[in-house]
Amino acid sequence: MSEIDSNKNTFKKKLLEKQKEAKIVRKIVLTVFIIVIIASSGLIGGGYLYIKSSLEPVDPTNQTEVAVTIPIGSSVSLIANILEENEIIKDARVFKYYIKFKNESGFQAGNYKLNRSMTFQEIIETIKQGKLTSEVAFQITIPEGRQLKEIASIVSKKTSFSDEVILDKLTDKAFINSMKAKYPDLLTDDIFGKDVRYALEGYLYPATYPYYKEDPTIEEVIEPMIKKMDEVVATYIPRLQEKKISVHRFVTLASLIEEEATEQTDRAKISSVFYNRIEQNMPLQTDPTVLYALNEHKDRVLYEDLEVDSPYNTYQNKGLPPGPIANAGDVSFEAVLSPEETDFLYFLATKEGEVIFTKTLEEHNKEKNKHIINN
C-alpha cells in the first residue's frame, strides 16, 4: 500500500471517529435538552398555578372584618407584608408585583377594616381611597343563578330606584357601551349578538356589595358588580385562551350549569354532559333555557313548553343559546374549564335535590318514570 493510500485510510478513520463522537454528543445534548424542557414545564406549570392561586382572595366566602393599620410613610413592601401577616392576601411578593404591573400608587395611611374575600383590586382601591374607614351605609347581596330582572328587583328593594328604572339602565346602550369601554376583556362584541336578549345578562357577579353613600347613583350601584365580574373572569383568561374558549361562551355555559345545578350536584358532571352532547351534535335540551325563552318561572316544564319558538330554546336549537341566562359563581366557572371525563348524555334532578346521570335515553326515561312521572 502506498503512503498516499495509507494517509487516506487514516483520514477516513479519523473522520468516522469524529462523526461517531459528534453523534454521541448530539444525543447527549438532545437528552439534556429534553430533561431541561420537562423540568422547566413542571416549574412553569407549578409557578402558574401558584401565582393564579395567590391572585385570588384568601377565602371568597369569609367577609369577617379584620382591623389592619397602615402606618404613615409605608412603602409598598411594608403594606404587602402587613396584609400578608393579617392573612388578607396570600403572598406579599405577588401583591407587590401586581401593584407594579398595574402602576398603582397613592396609598393612604390609616386604620382599615378589610376582609379575606377581597380581591387585590378591592384592597388597592380601599387603601387608596380610605373608604372602609367610614361606616357602610347599606349592602346588597346578589345570589348566584339570578337573572337581570331579578337583580333589578333586589337592587330596587335596597335603593330608591324602581325595578323599571334599574332595568332601563341595565339595558341602556350608552351605559353598556361605557362599561364595555372600561372592561373590554369582559364585555366583548359578543354581548351585542343578534339574538342576545340582554347584553349584561350573566355579567353581574354574585356577591355582597357594600355601599358607603346613603343614596348612590344607579351607575355607582351597578358598576361594582361588573367590575367584580371583570376581576373574577380575568383569573380564567389564560386558561380560556389555551382552550380557545371566548369569554361570552364561557359565561354562557357557566350560566347553564349554574341553573341546572343543585346544592348536592357535581357541576363537573353536568359540564361533561353538555360537552358530550355538543361533541355528538345533540341539542343540549336543558329546561332552564326553555323557561328563559318563555320569560317566566315555573316549577315544572311541560311538553308544550318545549315548542316555544326562541333561539334560547335548546330543545329546538343545537349548541349554546345566544347568551347567558343568569349569573354564575366560581364553582360553575371552574366546571366549564374542568369537566369530568364521563360518557353521560343525560341527567335528571329529583325532588330531593339528587341529580341522576345516565348514558342512554332508555336509562334516562326509566329514571324519569321513577322519580318524576310517577311522583
Automatic annotation (TrEMBL):
Q: Where is this site: Important for catalytic activity?
A: 260
Catalytic activity, reaction form: a peptidoglycan chain = a peptidoglycan chain with N-acetyl-1,6-anhydromuramyl-[peptide] at the reducing end + a peptidoglycan chain with N-acetylglucosamine at the non-reducing end
User: Under which name does UniProt file this protein?
Assistant: Endolytic murein transglycosylase
- Quick check: keyword GTP-binding in the entry? no
Family membership = Belongs to the transglycosylase MltG family.
Superkingdom as given in the UniProt entry: Bacteria
- Give a short account of what the protein does: Functions as a peptidoglycan terminase that cleaves nascent peptidoglycan strands endolytically to terminate their elongation.
Q: Where are the transmembrane segments?
A: 28-51
Is Lyase found in the keyword set? yes
Its localization reads: Cell membrane
In Pfam terms, one family for this protein is: YceG
Write out the entry's keywords from A to Z. Cell membrane, Cell wall biogenesis/degradation, Lyase, Membrane, Transmembrane, Transmembrane helix
What top-tier enzyme class does this entry carry? Answer: lyase
